[in-house]
């Protein structure tokens, strides 16, 4: 099997992203949800992230990689991202789920474009949006309707999520050149411009969907 | 369908026990596990608890009960139990998973004995021990072998878990007489003696299995 050199890195960062997102969403659900029904709804999304982690870990093992070793270079950056973007309330938690994960997912999807089709298919499978948008979007829009002053505060929060994601992403890219190369392979600078245009467009679309 | 009056209470307390155990085990895994592999192993158990929560919530809905309403009388006691038994390290977390959940499960199983067989079957299904013992028992025994002084400390910890469980259990029983009646229906005082004998025996067996 000829794998791109960054493939273990990509599956490793994605696996730890899912494992840590599962833990953080579980905590946000337990500590911030305004009702037991909301707590269950966010927990449901968290458990889906865990199921994705399981798929990625098993695939790493199939490739002959040690899953823990493949994840470990990314623990610092992802933990730092979560520590710096700890939601203060329920609406911030939902915006983080929708906007924050959205940006990360766009990155992983771009990286997967250049991979062996079976890996690209797995990455697409774990990145599919199972109703995450519907749940978070409805609750956030209702929250803004109930308290219009929340919109400005949440827009700032979303900007902070993006800033922190880019900053951690840059550090990961400079530490893991094989992974960074997956994002630009083939077309160099042109591809980087296209990448940023794609990410910005997707982010603006999500903000508009939230009413922010 | 003729249901015992305590059945919604029983499914409600069990549902919230699973939902809160899932959140606490997820947190313990993320903060206390000594390796990513151990973190994944405890997370796997946590996600299983969530799957049980889902079954119980759906069954409550089928019975025409509002799941959140059925759970809410038990949130205080179960949250208090978790707050008073927050593990300080990885071995305490594993002992809590094995011993603490074990006691709770014995209680629920006893209560289910007197129920409609289809409910009793569901309760048995969600209480089945899917390898929980194997994982926790192996790690705790290895921990004691590596550091024999840990045994005394963990035995004290297990005693505290039982004490807190009994204290919260008594409060729940006096606040929810229909639920308490499930435990003694038919035979009154004789049944209570038998219940305590059963619980004590099961607990001692678990302690011996752990080497405590």
Automatic annotation (TrEMBL), chains A, B:
Family annotation (Gene3D superfamilies): 1.20.1260.10
InterPro entries: Ferritin-like, Ferritin-like_SF, Ferritin_actino
Domain of life (superkingdom): Bacteria
Residue span, Ferritin-like domain: 6-185
Protein name: Ferritin-like protein
Organism of this sequence: Nonomuraea jabiensis
